[in-house]
Automatic annotation (TrEMBL):
N-terminal signal peptide: 1-26
Protein name according to UniProt: Thioredoxin-like fold domain-containing protein
Keyword Signal set for record: yes
Alphabetized UniProt keyword annotations: Signal
Amino acid sequence: MHTRRQILVNMASVLLAGALSVIAVATQAENASLQSGAQHGAALIMVEQQGCIYCARWNAEIAPIYPKTPEGHFAPLRRIDLHDPRPDDLTFDGPLVITPTFVLTIDGQETARIEGYGGDELFWAMLTVTLRNHSDFAAYMIDEKQ
């Protein structure tokens, strides 16, 4: 007979395996999107850390579809860990403290950021406003439709 602890460990293992497979698929799509989006100079930098429940929610709810969206094509996702040294090719306007933080960069320079994750609808709304106000996303969308 399984103890409560064994059952919880088994459940956690199953959930972790599922989350890792979602992240692996999303990472492949993100890499392809990074290559296609490089021509615009825009990127969405996701600052995350291990154990962040809101990062995990974003990974489950948004990561699989983000690279397939116009936003994902325009500003491909790039991930960095909060505790790792900052990449030399990125310049941030202030400290990175909250995870997840989504930093819109143009040619490696921060132009705007979204701190936290409050669900998919709020994320998409905030990202749309951020892209429209701090990049040439609107012009990109017009070009894509022609």
